[in-house]
Design a protein that fits this description.
- The chain is mostly helical.
- It contains 7 helices and 2 strands; from the N terminus they run H-H-H-H-H-H-E-E-H.
- It has 2 domains: about 55 residues, Arc Repressor Mutant, subunit A (Orthogonal Bundle); about 70 residues, no CATH class.
Length: about 180
């Protein structure tokens, strides 16, 4: 798309600028702005070379920098959150002295940020807490894509099944085995 005679960006170019500011990925910004996936890499590169788009990106970025921290999650915050999810360790949620789950108020901000869903469930044994955590493999994939180590949607996805058995009898035997 070319710049209009009045010097303004086209609607698609304006959308490209807005999308580019989300993650500074020209190819993905082009796709999200409605350009063809086949030509998105080229269009993204060409758009970044256009002086009017460069100016729009700089002006918009400067405007965004003036927003409060609550209104905008900076790229480094996204990276930190992904890192927290990737480094997730279940031991962070358990009191080592009692082997009981820690209260939410006892968790660090990073540990609490790994919780995708929290609920209390009433059972005959009392109130139980249910925690669902963000998917670690998805966080790794997102981090790799942000770093340019993985491209596209058709990458093979590693699947890891982890089954933890605990017999509770302390004899070192697994359930169902001798």
């Amino acid at each position: 798309m070319s710049i209009r005679k009045n010097g303004r960006l086209t609607q698609k170019e304006q959308l490209f600028v807005a999308e580019y500011l989300k993650d500074f990925n020209a190819t993905q910004a082009a796709i999200r702005a409605g350009y063809s996936k086949k030509t998105a890499y080229i269009i993204g590169h060409e758009n970044l070379r256009k002086p009017k788009i460069q100016t729009a990106i700089t002006d918009s970025h400067n405007s965004l920098q003036n927003l409060t921290d609550k209104a905008l999650m900076a790229a480094h915050e996204v990276e930190a959150h992904l890192d927290s999810i990737i480094r997730f360790n279940l031991k962070d949620y358990v009191n080592p002295e009692t082997d009981e789950a820690k209260a939410i108020s006892e968790l660090s901000q990073e540990a609490a940020g790994c919780i995708a869903e929290f609920s209390n469930i009433e059972t005959p044994l009392g109130t139980q807490r249910k925690l669902k955590f963000f998917n670690k493999l998805d966080a790794i994939k997102a981090k790799m894509q942000r770093l340019g180590l993985m491209k596209g949607e058709n990458n093979e996805r590693a699947v890891v099944n982890l089954i933890i058995e605990h017999s509770g009898d302390g004899d070192g035997k697994r359930n169902g085995t001798s």
